[in-house]
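Crash report, auto-generated. Payload:
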Amino acid sequence: MRTRAIVLAGCLLAVAWAGELDLLSRAPGAAMRNPLENDAPAARAGARLYAHACAPCHGLHREGHGRVPPLDRAAIRQAPPGTLFWILRNGSLRSGMPSFASLPEPERWQIIAFLRE
Amino acid sequence: MRLYYMQLMCRLTAMAAVWLFGARCRAGEGPFFVTYTHQMEEPGNLEFSAKSATGNPDRGHPFVATAAEFEYGMTAWWTAEWYLDGQATGSEGALFTGFRWENRFRLLWREHWINPVLYLEFEDIDAADKTALEVVGHDGVQDLTAPNQVARREKQREMEAKLILGSYYRGWTIAENFIAEKNLAHAPYEFGYAAGISRPLALAARPETCNFCRENFQVGVEVYGGLGTWAGFGLRDTSHYVAPTVSWTLLNGTAFQVSPSFGATASSARFLLRFGVSYELAQFGRSVGAWLRGGRQ
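Recovered output after restart:
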């Protein structure tokens, strides 16, 4: 009985963990549009912000590192901007991604403009 | 044995190299000295900062007190900090006044209108400490005027808890802290508060790099003070401060903060000037781990 409880708890934890890893497909906000979409200066500013806020974990060339996923992939470039905005605002605290809500909204949109270039 | 010491020296040298040449990122705590926001340190990042307070209280000597702070992101929801405090008072010399160890835990997984963080601290300082990183109970100007030789005999081993509430709204950072502190040896529970609001001068970044861009400056104001004790809760004989504050972050990640604090009651010091500098090393933990493993990532 005790073993079953442990296995069940383990399965639940694994499901919860997998859910965190699959953040891109679960995050809401797909309907939001980036007010800075296709704005080249905004994307350049986003690159600068990325270097400060994101590159230490995701790599200067968005290549990822260990458990930190790469961001130079089609899934990111094609993700709805609102989804990326939601992830930047909330992070994924259980899997190690901090919240970047401290960045003002326009700066978060600038980063997203850069990521989707 | 000699080999062991050589290995140890290599590792210490490697750690120093990480410290000096490691990746840097913006120190992003905002302009507050006393008020905490719900922003946590990024996991693996180490921020070093020095926060100083200087004043010239009536019937006392001018002083400068500094807290050296090491803040490390344990996880995305847990930040740990270590403080070393000291002070120098005119005609009385300089002394080390103790240490603080604190932990902050974010209580909700997502960002909300109001975001609670639980703060727990143990401090082992003496009464000569003048860093005034929080004001509780009936703390007042008399704590800044006692001679060092007398004050340092009184040990203050205290537990402190804070409920930190933080919000971001249209570029504004708004934070409120409720403080309860207990001296483990004696004295009743003491209470205090801190609140602050701040905003960057520009909400969007410029495409070009610059040290003097408006987005690199944050301005705000914080208020903080004591709320008496368990036996005598309230504003009577408590000190309160109003402190405009500004921070400036350089391109290399170094941030400077300055804040003149004005006492608002007879118990308060009339004026304190706070100033600080902070610097953040990105992924310090990962770099140190890699060096200790002989360079393997």
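Post-recovery validation: Chain B touches chain A through 36 residues (CB under 8 Å).
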